[in-house]
Design a protein that fits this description.
It holds the Pfam family LlgE_F_G_D1. By secondary structure, this protein is α+β, with helices and mostly antiparallel strands. It contains 2 helices and 19 strands. The two termini are about 25 Å apart.
């Protein structure tokens, strides 16, 4: 019976973590370039129970038993979000053309990071940055300095001012996006802070647009209700075990007395 407590509690904990994940997805519905997180829940490895009795040379197999479930991992879902027109010249949206996710290359505290959030701005020095102040890098890994926000960006990432090319956006591709580590502010990094390769021709950039979050609010709400009901079901099982234990302690103990 005590094992049943742990099994029900593990189910409650797994569903609580799933609810937290879904809540974060819902909170970022309006975050440009946000990729929703998905989770996988699996059972702990099964154990084989055996009964050993006095006087018997061999044990008798009772059968397998499981000790509960846990959330194995969370992974971003790299599905293209819808493009939303803003008519703001510093807003840029990436579109994957060949199925491989691509990212803007930015710099945070001297480290290379990657993002799908193309809501950029110009700082006081004329550097192209994210709204959080991280520098957007060109194809050579340099900061991009512009004279005004009246620049033009072609679909292949070339930045032009007064008809002349001044820079080319650095765009990186992730052949294995599940290996990227998700950080705050819409940033990603590689496991050992390595560099993703620059690409050309596998993407399209739309100026005056942003990529919307790929969270489906209807599905997220349905998943949240399912997780909540599963949590409640495990909670009721835990309460049933608690009542059984209370009865065993109070009534069986009194009869034996």
């Amino acid at each position: 019976m005590l094992r049943g407590f742990y099994t029900a509690a593990s189910g409650m904990y797994a569903q609580q973590r799933k609810t937290d994940l879904l809540t974060n997805n819902m909170a970022n519905i309006n975050t440009p370039g946000f990729k929703e997180d998905t989770s996988t829940i699996r059972a702990f490895p099964e154990m084989l129970l055996q009964r050993i009795e006095a006087g018997k040379a061999k044990s008798e197999t009772v059968g397998p038993i499981n000790t509960g479930v846990y959330m194995q991992e969370t992974l971003p879902r790299f599905i293209q979000g819808d493009l939303r027109q803003t008519d703001i010249g510093t807003d840029l949206a990436l579109t994957d053309l060949e199925g491989t996710p691509v990212f803007f290359i930015v710099e945070e505290n001297g480290q290379t990071k990657y993002t799908r959030n193309g809501r950029f701005t110009l700082d006081a020095e004329g550097l192209l940055t994210t709204t959080e102040g991280f520098s957007v890098l060109d194809v050579n890994g340099n900061q991009i300095r512009l004279n005004s926000d009246r620049f033009k960006v072609t679909s292949n990432g070339i930045i032009e001012e007064n008809g002349a090319q001044v820079a080319r956006l650095g765009i990186a591709a992730a052949e294995n996006p599940e290996a990227l580590i998700k950080e705050g502010n819409g940033l990603y990094r590689t496991e050992n802070n390595g560099q993703l390769p620059n690409v050309d021709g596998t993407f399209s950039i739309s100026q005056g647009f942003i990529e919307a979050s790929n969270v489906d609010p209807t599905r997220a709400m349905a998943d949240m209700l399912t997780a909540y009901r599963a949590f409640e079901a495990n909670q009721k099982i835990l309460q049933a075990y608690d009542r059984s234990m209370e009865k065993a302690v109070n009534e069986i103990g009194r009869v034996n007395g």
